[in-house]
Every structure is written in C-alpha cells, then in structure tokens.
Amino acid sequence: MIQISPKRIRGEWASGYALDMHTLSSECIGYNEYGHAQFDTKRSEMGELLYRLKYKSDRSVLKIIIDAVVEFVKSKDWQVDVLIPVPPSSTTRSFQPVLSIAKGVSKLLLLRLCQDCVVKVKEMPELKNVYELDKRMELLKDAYAVVRREVVDRKILLFDDLYRSGATLNAITQALKQKGKVKDVYVLTLTMTRRIR
C-alpha cells in the first residue's frame, strides 16, 4: 500500500478530501534547445502514480491507485449510494483515467457507478489553462445537466483526479443539489495542487 497524506478540501459538499499533494516541489533547472523551461519535479507517491497513468499511459499503476482509494473510502463514515466520476475535460482521449479508476473502485466497494448521471452540456476550453477563479466559475455556469431520477435522495461520492481550485467540483455539486435533489455530496480527488487557483 502506498503512503498518502490526505488533505481536507472545502466546498459546497458535505465533506471532501484529496488523498495527497500532486507535487512536493518543482525547481527550474534550465532551458532546452527550444527555449522551454525544464523542471526537476518531485511528486508525492500518488502524484507520481497519477502522472504515470495520465501522461505515460502506464495502466500497471491502476490497481495500486484503486486500492488506495478503496481503503480511504472505507475509513470514512460516508455511507454513499452512488459513485459519480467527474466528466472528462477532453473527450478525445481514448483512455479516461478517472473513469477507469472509478470503475475499479465501484466494483470493490460494491457501489453503484453512474458515469452518465452528470453530463457536460456546454462546450468550454480546458480549465487548466484558465487561472482566474471568477472566469472558471463563469465558464462553468450551467455547464452540467443531471439525470435526476438516478440521483434523487441519494448520497453521492463525486470523484476526480486533481483538485486545483474546486470550481468544477463546486459547479457539479451545485447541479447535483439543485437539479438532482441529492441527499448529500462527498468529494474525493487523488491529488491537489500546491497552489489553489
């Protein structure tokens, strides 16, 4: 089992955690031949596993990540009914890490997975390139539809890979509460950035 250091994340939800920081440090070590800055980045164990899965397509780390998520959820008294993965920001990727992890977690926890309960209905740029929180919130306004019959009066575990500003998770939580009439929302992410933006 990997070492994690859970961090509480606050938002519209009842309770939320990131299992660890994504990076522990990142130091500029110079520039390459194209003038791009090069960094020596040190990641947490979970951050490194997520990096390998998401950017190196290393699916061998899936089981380790899933086991860590399952153990953490078991340690909480959330008593959730439905696991909802955050819809991907890019649908062009053939492999969706968040969905793959959510499938494994739902199977081990015997928890209903609803990957279509929250649907992105508004086109927008990837938020990783939008740094102002107000601008993120404006882009996310009315961005998600909820299939109410699937979530009404349920306790939801909303799952994502990275917590940066909380804008997406807050927008989805608001949609689940207002449109879906859920009982409660709990949030879990694998990692969080060192600087919340």
How many helical stretches?
6
Shape designation: globular
Structure classification: alpha/beta
Total separate domains: 1
End-to-end separation? 30 Å
Counting DSSP E segments of at least 2 residues, the number of strands comes to: 10
Estimated share of beta-strand residues: 25-35%
Unreliable residue runs: none
| Rounded mean pLDDT score | 91
Give the CATH level 1 class.
Alpha Beta
Q: Write down the Rg.
A: 17 Å
Fraction in helix? 25-40%
Biggest sheet: strand arrangement: 1-2-10-9-5-6
How is the CATH topology named? Rossmann fold
What pattern of helices and strands is seen along the backbone? EEEEHHEHEEHEHEHE
Q: Give the CATH architecture.
A: 3-Layer(aba) Sandwich
Largest sheet: 6 strands, mixed
Structure description:
With 197 residues, the chain is α/β, with parallel strands linked by helices. The protein has a single domain, classed as Rossmann fold (3-Layer(aba) Sandwich). 31% of the residues lie in helices and 28% in strands. The chain contains six helices and ten strands. The protein has helices at 45-55, 62-75, 97-109, 133-140, 148-151, 167-178, and strands spanning 7-8, 15-21, 23-31, 37-43, 82-85, 112-113, 118-120, 144-146, 155-163, 184-192. The strands form three sheets. It has a six-stranded mixed beta sheet with strand order 1-2-10-9-5-6. A two-stranded antiparallel ribbon has the order 3-4. Strands 7-8 form a two-stranded antiparallel ribbon. A hairpin with a 5-residue loop joins strand 3 (23-31) and strand 4. Helix 2 crosses helix 3 (97-109). The longest helix has 14 residues, at 62-75. The radius of gyration is 17 Å and the shape is globular. The mean pLDDT is 91.
